[in-house]
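Archive entry. Fields below.
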Amino acid sequence: MRIGVVTFPGSLDDRDAARAIRLAGGTAVPLWHGDRELHSVDAVVLPGGFAYGDYLRCGAIARFAPVMDEIIRLAGPPTAAAPGLPVLGICNGFQVLCESHLLPGALIRNDHRHFICRDQVLRVESTSTTWTSGYTAGDEIVIPLKNGEGGYVADTATLDQLEGEARVVVRYLGFNPNGSYRDIAGVSNASGSVVGLMPHPEHAVETGYGPESDSHGALSGGTDGLRFFTSALQGVLSA
Amino acid sequence: MGRVVIDVMPKPEILDPQGKAVVGALARLGFKEFAGARQGKRFELEVDGEVDAAVLERAAEAARTLLSNPVIEDVVAVRSAD
Amino acid sequence: MSSDSVNTYGEDFDAVLDDGSVLTVEQRAALDTVERAQSTKDTEQPWAALGMKADEYAELHEILGRRPTSSELAMYSVMWSEHCSYKSSKVHLRQFGEKTTEAMREHLLVGIGENAGVVDIGQGWAVTFKIESHNHPSYVEPYQGAATGVGGIVRDIISMGARPVAVMDPLRFGAIDHPDTLRVLPGIVAGVGGYGNCLGLPNIGGEVVFDPCYQGNPLVNVLCVGTMKHQDIHLANATGAGNLVILFGARTGGDGIGGASILASETFAEGGQAKRPAVQVGDPFAEKVLIECCLDLFQAKVVNGIQDLGAAGLSCAFSELASNGDGGMLVHLDRAPLRDPSLAPEEILMSESQERMMAVVRPEDLPGFLAITSRWDVEATVMGEVTETGRLVVLWHGETIVDVPPRTVAHDGPVYNRPMARPDSLDALQADSPARLPRPADADLAGLVLRMIGSPNLSSRSWVTDQYDRYVQGNTTLATPDDAGVIRVDEESGLGVAISTDCNARFAALDPYHGAQLALAESYRNVAVAGGRPLAVTDCLNFGSPEDPGVMWQFAEAVRGLADGCQQLGVPVTGGNVSLYNQTGSTPIHPTPVVGVLGVLPDVAARTPSGWREAGAQLLLLGTTRAEFGGSEWAWVEHSHLGGLPPAVDLEAERSLADLLVTAGGDGLLIAAHDLSDGGLAQTLVESSLRYGVGATVSADAACTRDGVDAFTLLFAESTARVLVAVAAESVPEFTERCERLSVPVVALGTTGGDALTVEDRFTLSLDQLRTTHTAALPAALTL
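PREDICTED_STRUCTURE:
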């Protein structure tokens, strides 16, 4: 199963996303921002980082990259013929997805105006997405969060719609690290194929290199994030 | 050589952490009379020739497409620099 | 990006520029060329304003056989500044090389003299690491000063051919409650984080120290580590006549003109910011792109030599590449892509615009080189070529404005033998022993523990470290607050490195020779505690003005101490940095020789954390405790006292201790290990208990009886060569036997478990209370 990982100038966690895909049992395919060719991948990850230096706005320039034209075309509303390319946008990738309007809302500066790196407890709200189907609704997981512009905002109507349609995928639990409205950490599109989240599941996939404790403070393997990737691989397998 | 100036501000209903920080800092420096602040962006675009209505319309489109994010920002002004 | 500069010079360097720009008659007449200098020897030149001394100016006449042109004067003034030439420190730094034995060179692939040292860690992997300082710019512009400090050291690492994999930041500030600390600290931390995070480099450790001596002169030291395979090592030399000299990266602007010579060679006037020279502004995105571009260039093997542009910009790059090489260089300065077209040649030569590199490339490799820079949208310009003349010649629109022997610029600069004198005040300082300070009663120990762990230097650093990304690259397996940062290098085998940076400047103020050795000992010990076998050393020597004989004496003693210590421990200094003129007015900072040690772990899975997660583990104290409080945190926090002698150094004991910890850790005998340093055993017990929220119950009696000290001394003295370890009950006999074999003193302290820290018959403090107190200081002081 081939999952593409896009590298924009300034992408940072692309190699980490590739590692996560490998550890989950998939094949990571590097995708260059300037290249419209998606090499027949089954899904795409837009990784974390500072694409184009976060110039203008985070993700604002990256969303116009040639590779994004193709991704937007394929990831759009699903039809009978094309079920919609699954896309996972992590952190900067989430910002790119919002700027592309593949997901609603936007990400603004953390309310406390500092960059924050912490092991964040999340509640998995929706397992009806390509990327979270392997979790159980209500699962509490610990995933590293590291960003300066992670505040999720949208107007009230949009927020109500997201909640009403069960499109809030993960929510901050116990501590809101950035002022995101309704403690929203990640959302999906209507069909659940496109998911964006600020925390970094690719940094919680390998024991000894991820968070040191689980959501109850007990020793964890630090691998709560792996299921984002295995979910997609199962889904692709059974598609 | 003409110049078009575009002002982009965060939407009023959106949280503006930078504006909040600015007001706090002003107060600490003794500028207590300024009760609020919002921080936006100003762009200056250079164009050959004069800035006429057609140029302004193109600039406005550029502002809508790239220079602002309509989810969180409003384009509050598009005008010739002169 | 302009494609003109990329295409035009591919074949014929003597061709007129595409844009046809030439000098006007007036401009040509105003240009200070070599020809003009030969015929106008009495022209007044601003050598003093550029920071040059009269004898240096005279020396320059000797070297050139004429007066320098204004461009040459600009070059020599920056390159002969203290910051670039190390003229005050060279005579002392020689000891590092001289005292490195053959045995110490065993793992050294590149030693002192290159951009950074390179160490062989096995399995075909090499690691390069170095610390640098950016102190004065950070006082002027905290964010950009710190940011460009990170940028600079990272470029040094790239220029060795490595992928940068981690950073660490030893930071020092004035008093925590001083308004100016509030001005500089948040900006510096934001700058280190802003630049480092954007480059994708995990920040795995560092220091945050508060002391009034740094009030007018904060210290921003940054360490960077990089990895590569042996065959990827690149050096900064220009060899092979006909090879091309290529400038690539950001355009050149007016950043930091004269920053090197003016800023780092002058101190700040008390109470004033009269001089505000241009501070460099960094663009981490440009550097991230540069990193990836360089790595692709290295992989394609199209780079013959490479140099980064740091202090003194092009002056440094041209002269160092030429000087390290075997011939000369001819460059067309007017080809340099500019951000500011009004810059004069002198300014272009001195500019410290960031994110620029220089490569020496064989002509046949040029198309490949340009294809890669083009893919990354990095501007690249052929500036000239390596020649056989033995001279560095710089042309400006065809006119010769520089013609010098490169070695005189870059390596054979002035060497000073500054006067040194042991400060008169030192005797009184050393005589003012902390033995006279009142000790607390046993009943007061609980309160003392809380005051200590809540004090600025002993409290939690998470306000700072939470602003740094520790996860990026996915290879960080240990980071602050543990004793060392541990990075995996090889994903297959688990091979990795451990790094620590340390310095207790109070110890160095009391005794610079031993203080430097104490910094080395602590860093060495921290690496071993985490499980790394120490292999190499880097240093950042922060001192006051070398024109002060007392400071110069401190410097000489510290270097001597460090060199002797390295020899005794068998770990070589591979490179480092000297920062002088750190003063406020006439008051120098404490001598602050920051020492970084790098060690290797065959498999980082065996690394040892600083805290325990389980109950029932046995706590053992390694080493001996003596009533040593000179320069201690207790004396400072409780009595504002600095005096006496620092704790004794015992490098043989440190060596045995390290051997024990590295092998025991590798064999899986250690649940946890944490070194004892500032704040003594009490601090270590608290930190280890809070690490995973599992307390401990210990008894002071056995240790006190054995060492002949009271409980207070056991808990707060700062004797060296001591480590707290947690060992599974069933492993204690074997571990104790290993201690005996290596002559490491060991005494049982107690057991882990519970939600409190108990020192029997003395006090019990709940972890909740300890945590609240420990985490309060920085947020309280720094949150507006």
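CURATOR_NOTE: Chain C is about 35% helix and 20% strand.
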